[in-house]
Amino acid sequence: DNYEKIYNGMSISQVESILGEGESNASSSYDLGEYGGNISSEVMTWQSGMTVISITFSNGKVMAKAQSGF
Questions:
Q1: What is the pTM of this model?
Q2: How far is CA 65 from the centre of its chain?
Q3: What is the pLDDT along the chain (70 residues), one digit of tens a residue?
């Protein structure tokens, strides 16, 4: 199962090499100034039949994942 191959810290390109091209559903970017720099986040989804995989990326790295609709 490809979902199990995804783990925190992977890059978007690493995930897409496993799951194929994803669809970006939401993205945001925050500038925390001189102390924090920029933080960007993006939620991407992959759908195959009734199964949907949703992955949240923070600064281009996997932060969380979820699967539904087995």
A1: 0.85
A2: 7
A3: 899 999 999 999 999 999 999 999 988 888 888 877 888 999 999 999 999 999 999 999 999 999 998 6
